[in-house]
Amino acid sequence: MDRRCRNCIFFRSYDFMDNFGYCIKNNVIVDPSNVSVCDNFREVSIDDLKEQIRVHGFVYCATCRKFITSIDELEEHINKHLVTYGFIRDEVAPEEIPSAD
Fold this sequence. Notes:
Layout: E1 11-14, E2 21-23, E3 28-30, H1 46-56, E4 59-61, E5 66-68, H2 71-77, E6 83-84, E7 87-88, H3 93-96
Parallel strand pairs: 1-7
Antiparallel strand pairs: 1-2, 2-3, 4-5, 4-6
Domain C2H2-type: 61-81
Protein name: C2H2-type domain-containing protein
InterPro entries: Znf_C2H2_type
């Protein structure tokens, strides 16, 4: 895995925009152009994600935009997709999307 914020244990994916996210350690928004990592960077491992599923019941696949709730499902996603501990939900974004009225 490459050393990028999106591969850090503290990264939370943003549910409406691919690759954007939030660092829960530094309380900052992370954009896809961010190629440097901070001193708090800790690469997320498959064991970390498995533990997250065991303790909290899910991890989040930012590629598919879906919850992963089993170890078997995690192993199907981990090598090809961006899997994170969770995501940041934007409560206002649905209101900003134009409707088809």
